[in-house]
Specification:
Blueprint: H1 11-46, H2 51-56, H3 76-107, H4 110-125, H5 128-143, H6 155-179, H7 183-191, H8 196-207, H9 209-225, H10 228-233, H11 251-258, H12 268-298
Helix pairs in contact: 1-12, 3-6, 3-9, 4-6, 5-6, 6-9, 7-8, 9-12, 11-12
């Protein structure tokens, strides 16, 4: 009898294992490199600026003045604008994305699926700068029919267009999660007298909830980290406002504006870039941790 436990791994398997381990290590090293690149300038920034004042301050004048004493580094206006655009984007992307996922998974025929799927892939592949120009040239004139928008820029237009940008992400991942639900659960629901809608909402949707939560959190991460749409459509006016029809600068919008060569190395403005980037990294990291907890909580194994 051959002892299979003592068989040596084939060279092809060893090569594949080495490639997979290298890919995993490369991802870890990339994350560590990002943290290291942000750490030193951020520490230098907070040697001059109080952390509490940075997180709770309502005035951001990093681009004005020369010395540290001439500037105000209250990041709350940037965070508020970022959260507003994210909430608006999710109010568009989550209903549309989940609706498309339910259609493709539970209702659509092969012919409909063969048309809708490629369209979603095309939307996912459009450069975000195109979305930004679309927001300025098409969405803003359309919104002016219903609301009074002051000028060309508004958080509302940026959030709406960003929502359509992340619809493919939410729809595709949610559809994959719903399609992975065993057909036996659907058949059991039908056998008990439930129609297709009740089966979708009360059986398939709860069973795929972990994948749906992951899709939504990934959409949030994309919305928070989006740059070109908010840079072009939301504007660069830093102000603490909860009015979505006004323009406001987001965290990524500030980074995109200043990181084009206007911040001399070693200046307060230069270090403020890394502080905002570090805060953005922390926000995304916390959201990913919450996503992992939710996925593990609602995960079902078949």
């Amino acid at each position: 009898m051959v002892d299979l436990s003592r068989r040596h791994a084939r060279w092809g398997e060893r090569i594949i294992m080495a490639v997979l381990v290298t890919a995993a290590l490369l991802s870890v090293l990339t994350t560590v490199g990002i943290v290291i690149s942000l750490l030193a300038p951020t520490i230098t920034f907070f040697q001059h600026v109080n952390v509490w004042d940075f997180l709770t301050g309502t005035e951001w004048t990093a681009v004005f003045g020369v010395e540290w004493e001439d500037k105000s580094f209250g990041v709350l206006p940037l965070v508020t604008a970022t959260m507003m655009t994210t909430v608006i984007a999710l109010s568009v992307a989550v209903p549309l994305g989940l609706g498309i996922a339910m259609l493709l998974s539970e209702y659509a025929s092969r012919r409909v699926r063969s048309v809708v799927k490629p369209v979603l892939e095309v939307l996912a592949g459009i450069p975000t700068v195109v979305y930004g120009f679309f927001a300025i040239t098409a969405v803003v004139p359309l919104l002016e029919i219903f609301v009074d928008i002051d000028g060309l820029y508004s958080v509302l237009s940026a959030g709406l267009v960003m929502g359509f940008m992340i619809v493919p992400t939410v729809a595709s991942l949610s559809e994959d999660a719903m399609s992975a639900v065993p057909s036996a659960l659907r058949q059991g629901s039908y056998a008990l007298g439930a129609n297709r809608m009740k089966t979708t909402l009360r059986v398939v949707f709860p069973a795929a909830l972990s994948g749906i939560v992951a899709a939504v959190v990934l959409g949030i991460s994309r919305a928070v980290g989006e740059t070109m749409i908010v840079t072009l459509a939301a504007g660069n006016l830093v102000r603490l406002s909860f009015n979505p029809v006004e323009g406001a600068q987001t965290m990524t919008g500030f980074i995109a504006q200043v990181a084009t060569g206007d911040a001399p190395e070693g200046s307060p403005l230069y270090y403020s870039l890394f502080a905002v980037g570090a805060l953005l990294f922390v926000i995304t990291f916390v959201m990913n941790l919450i996503s992992i907890r939710l996925v593990r909580k609602y995960r079902q194994v078949y």
